[in-house]
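Project standup — Tuesday

K.O.: blocked on the structure for the chain from last sprint. Re-posting the sequence here as requested.
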Amino acid sequence: MNYILFDDYTWEELRPLTFTRPVCEIRLGIMTLKEKWEKYLSSKCSYLTKDYLQEKFPTLISEDNILINSSIIPTAELISEIETLNQGDVLKKDALICAVRLNKEQTHKFNYENIDNYSVIESVSDFSKVNFLWDIFRMNGEAIEHDFKIITKGRKSQPLSKTNTVLGDNDVFVERGAVVECATINTKNGPVYIGKNTEIMERSAIRGPFALCEGSIVKMGAKIYGPTTVGPYSKVGGELNNVVLFAYSNKGHDGFLGNAVVGEWCNFGADTNNSNLKNNYSEVKMWNYSKNRFIKTGLQFCGLVMGDHSKCGINTMFNTGTLIGVGANIFGSGFPRNFIPCFAWGGSHGFSDTVIEKSFEVAKLVMERRNIELTETDKKILRRIFDTTTQYREQFK
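H.V.: unblocked you, prediction finished:
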């Protein structure tokens, strides 16, 4: 069977993170949504996403295809329902399209907004899906525990050095190549996963649920409260509380980051802090691209969301509920506004457009440090985002 993860309206809700990726490339827990589906299905999946992303994230179509909603978190019960579909069947949960089985011709014409010609089957499964940006950190604890069980099932952890102090009854799982010395690890509230070739430096204090993915580093004396995920090849230090970093991003210095989601290739200057609670303890609002305005999150604690390739200078201060686009560069004293458009450069004193070629130069240098190339395909995607977000830079200058 050929599996394809398709993006529906949720892609719009999850911008700016989805400006540069399909929904299923969002990291939630230890794995991305795509990695979760591939684990459950024991099969590779391809993508059906926005046209300008398809060159980097292609669709592979065969004679018999099952298309699955990319924003859904898989469960064994849902997988069982999907596997019973016949060609032309669509699995729904109320108004949500969960999956559809199609032949080659039907797949080429598939539009999730038009399923009139398909046979509808109502799902009886209970499952979760990512609807809004803040769902990523809000649902991260349950996701870490779920992924932890899948990844570690039937496997034996590498021994943890006796220089460490471990508290609580939940598990610590250590992959090969990990180095952990003189750290305090508290599993009372959830498990701790320490990935391949990672390092947790001395005097770090970590509370689960926590995931440190492959190649990442926790700097000396870090204080990390779960549920927090540090994605592959990232560095963290200072204080973190309920944070998800996707990959290749650094918050390596002192400063507080809480109730936050950070994309790829981001960097936080020393002593950067974000607020995650308003002074009057009221509900936090955050900018929403679909509504073109700030909307209620339903949360009292909500920090920031930062899109790929964004950076901030030393001593940057972010207000509660800040949304930062792709390729932004924030610097200077004071609090910048809590919606920063893609490719806006500046701070509390105001923002100006960057020249897109300058962003390419910065991205190229940053990625070369990790021996990764900024490809022409990457540039096309970034240029498309730059062109389609001009209105926001003009509106919020």
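K.O.: great, moving the ticket to review. Residues 2-122 form a domain with the Spore Coat Polysaccharide Biosynthesis Protein SpsA; Chain A fold (CATH 3.90.550). The chain has a mean pLDDT of 96.
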